[in-house]
Model the fold of this input.
Amino acid sequence: MSEQTNIDDKLGQLQRAEVPLLEVKDLQVDFTTDDGRAVHAVRDSSFSVYPGQWVAIVGESGSGKSTSAMACLGLLPGTGKVVGGSIKLNGNEISHYTQKEFVNVRGSKMGLVPQDPMSNLNPVWRIGTQVKEALVANNMDVSHEKRSDLAKALAKADIEIKSEGDETFLGSKQLPELLEAAEQALVAIGVEGDAFAKKMEYFRAEWVPGSETRWRVADDLVKAGVKADDAWYIAKKYVTGSSMEDRIAGLLDEAGLPDAATRARQYPHEFSGGMRQRALIAIGLACRPELLIADEPTSALDVTVQKKILDHLQDLTDSLGTAVLFITHDLGLAAERAQHIVVMYKGQVVESGPSLEVLQHPQHPYTKRLVAAAPSLASQRIVSVEERGQDASAIMEHKVNEESLEKADTIIEVSHLTREFKLPRTKDMFKAVDDVSFKLKRGTTLAIVGESGSGKSTVANMVLKLLEPTSGTVTYNGSDIAQFKGESLLDFRRHVQPVFQNPYGSLDPMYSIFRSIEEPLRIHKVGDKKSRAARVRELLDMVELPESVMRRYPNELSGGQRQRIAIARAMALNPDVIVCDEAVSALDVLVQDQVLHLLNDLQAKNGLSYLFITHDLAVVRQIADDVVVMQHGKLVEHGTTDEVFLHPQQQYTRDLLDAIPGGKLELGLNLD
Amino acid sequence: MGKYLLRRILQMIPVVLGTTLLVYALVFALPGDPVKAMFGDKPVNEAVAAQIRAEYNLDKPFIVQYFLFLKNALTLNFGETFAGQPVIAEIGRAFPVTIKLALMAFCFEAIFGCVFGVISGLKKGKWYDSVILIVSLLLISVPTFVTGFVGQYFLGVKWRILPVTAGANPGFFDLLMPAMVLGSVSMAYIIRLARSEVSSNIALDYVRTARAKGMSNTSVTFRHILRNSMIPVVTYLGQDLGALMGGAMITEQIFNIHGIGFLTYQSILKGEANMVVSVVTLLTLVFVICNLLVDMLYAALDPRIRYA
Amino acid sequence: MTDITKPLPGQERYVAPLEETPLQTVDTVDESATATSMWSDAWRALRRNPLFIISSILIVFIIFVALFPGVFTKNDPNYCTLDNSLEPARPGHPFGFDLQGCDVYSRVIYGTRTSLSVGILSTLIVVAVGTLIGAIAGFCGGWIDAVLSRIVDIFMAIPMLLGAIVVLQMFRTITSIWKVVLVLALFGWVSTARIARGAVLSSKNLEFNTASTALGSTPMRNLFRHILPNSLAPIIVIATTSLGSYIVSEATLSFLGIGLPSTTVSWGGDISNAQSILRTDPMVLFYPSVALAVTVLAFIMMGDAVKDALDPKSRTA
Done:
């Protein structure tokens, strides 16, 4: 560890000696609306990034965090314009740059890793071609590595680089010969057996054409015991520069893409989201920029993939000496990855400083609010207002629930549920859900957790009888829901209601809020016109929305408000069970917190049972009594929330828990 | 790719069969007896009429007629006209003229449509964008025959730049004005299509990513914006090539070009059922084959289709 | 991570003064804004679009002319004497006379009704039939969709003009405008059906349908209450635009002498009659052509404006 501290000290000294790499002062960005009004998207914001540093900008959607970053690249969308303040890159003012001037700094000095991996690669070009574009656009010499001064300074002290030529890449043509020479060298110094095999395997893994440089090959050989002169002789003889194809594969390999040379010839649609994001990282870092702007680079990915990619990105930027401006909505992620943090709210910087300090001792009320709402492993199950109002024993009761859980009767029971889908154009069947069994007890919350493709939503749809199981049964109050038809089905629908993930999609845009909430009452022919209207008012009040919302349409409301409308609609018929399919996943932290509290209060008041489908373990901690962990359609682990979180039995569950960003950090120490 | 093509060809078969059947049904439901029409004013000789009916299979049930027609069509045997000329020979004379006209119109609309559309889309809101947009709106609104007359009057009669009509054996210059008239409406549609594609592609995420790589505006425009915008434009163009052949009827009529449209129209007026069916069948085939070509081109342009 | 002992210059702890960054309650509803449905949004966008203003003025005017041609001319369009053949304009006859000696101005005025009624009637039939078939195909899916889609493909493969001529040839003796209307509808329904199918397919897969089903709604109820209303926008757009193109088609068929009979006053027929005297008297051809072009232009501009207003991309969903 002392070595690590040593490097950190040196990094600190180097940073202190220099001016900030990026210095943004009093930045103002305006957008012009259709009717000519100016909207101030960013107001008087200042922040700076030093070489080799990770700086995070945190904020909810619409806070101006991405806009600030894009202003630095000169890539503001639409009518966006920098109207005040300064942006300095290496001391040069760039805020007034023309697009032509920006071309010279983009890619080579500043790179970008964008947010959505699905839309940021051009579907018609091969991955390799898109990497190549970055190299060609900046006239990169593909036979030699270009490193930032910081990386050179850091590296030189530890490993001796004899000359500039030592940054020459290994080419794929020379690789077999190099390996052969390495073999002979090892034999010559008498390495045999297991040790020999291990070392050769290490060489094969490390020596990636287009990525590995001469001095690193030499260094590896020296570390393996080869004499320095011999090692350098071999390295100089066989490491003579790479071709464009090698370099592209090397870059993709560095970004963590397996089998990079083959992958480079494929098209984006043949890649998964995680792989595309890796390709985008390779593109962003292709020309060795000093600053990488990472705009929510992993928000579209599963947590375990997110962790892998960010770990990799961090290793890579550390070794290259690249500074990273990291835009995120996730406080945990910011706390874990960045040294310095900038909190933005409605276009303004409300607080900034060393990340742990800011998040452990937030001062601005907004930061305090954010920290308090951020779900993390340390958080506990939300205790509803009513429970809190009662004496302490009541709170205890909700926690010491295991006993009562045992006693409570089962409202939904899923046993050996299996669902197969036919794969398109083949005869193969794909098991989306494979033999899943669990029980949902009355008045409690059962969370189903899993990553994309785990089959959790398929389970939800089968419980809702929107999808028929291939085999297995779902029972509601003891009767098999497969038998429900006509009247009995309508009765089942009345008691089991859904709240879906997408608050933009689950409300008909043509319906006013009143009609949307009234719809279930109409379908089930409850009450007359007047009593229905009264019920809608009551429901709006229940979800804490003003009555005037009734006359509005979904497109006028925010995501959180729509989700509350969806909850009101689900509550209209006084159901027993609500199935929440990723109901809070698309919402900002504060709004998510608000909706979770609402759900919890409703549960306490009405004795509802929730089947809560989510990919977010931190949310599970806040809302669930029982947890089911699913992976590839199978049930991996099933237990009470405390059991699963404190004593996970399966490796997969442990991986999921580990991957929660900032999971182990205690935030908001100064809050109650 | 191979599988994809095979599937497309298989899908083509019912369309060709259905279309020919529909056309055949429409034509042979035409009122009036084509056999009687052959005798003109002379009295009908029943024996000869029966012989002719047998020769043309007109005495057999409709569906049998259709299959016999289909069988003959496969060997390019479309029978004879009332005047005793083989239908295929007449078509053979007219077809090259129409192909020439359609190809010229195609080049005209493709080149000018793309150029103006792309300029318009890249510089949305500039004055020349508005001009291009208004002109394209006008071209869409004015029927082809009016455009034709306007062209004839100004280019042909008043300024005498181009010949007013083409005649029997038209050359490049004779067909220049007809081709422009024929392609004008499609050109306007291409302008609008290319414009909306380009202007919406400009704002796409991968274009921003390309700029962030440090690529120059020119290469971003060509490699990312235009390359992707061309996919729907090329699709439209391909389908239009087939439609141009069928749409040439008006143009050929106005400019007196003895092509396939002219032939069809004359045959319809004369009640030459055999000729009509043959020509429409051929045109349909051309249309369907053009669509197949479009599919292939589409697959070549868009890798997502290729592997689907 | 790096330790956090001393922040670098410019990175010291900073807390914005609260008065400069007022805190708002989480996720409040802006109660001051007026409620807007999709249609009222579209209407607001339309009102500001000059394309819409111009085209709607034109269309209102054209409809007025079609309904009350007598307001604009006292002359009988069918009163023609060879005495007046190719006479130039004179008071009461502002556009002069054609070869048969008919008053060009009154023929242009009376031709409006023909063109407009053919356009509107064809559009109504096409929208009804096309939407029905398209909606059935999109909603039912499976083999019904496969069969209907092939039928659409078959009709698509026949060039509209060719098909129309072949069919019209059969009914030369019928003089009603319904003949042209039905033929245009016969070959025009496919494009509307295609659009309707696509629209139904895409709104069928939206989440609110699943939500409604889970609330207890039946598939049929979903179709009429949710899917069809949400598919209307593209159908309205294609209907407006194709209205213009049906007017063109009618004129084209009449021009070829196979559409409306010569006894019906129509722009296409008049243009056809005037083509023989194009070299000497181009104005006789010019007036009906302009009338035709302006009418079609008005509907196509209207289609463009409606498309912009109803475009889901332009709406902040």
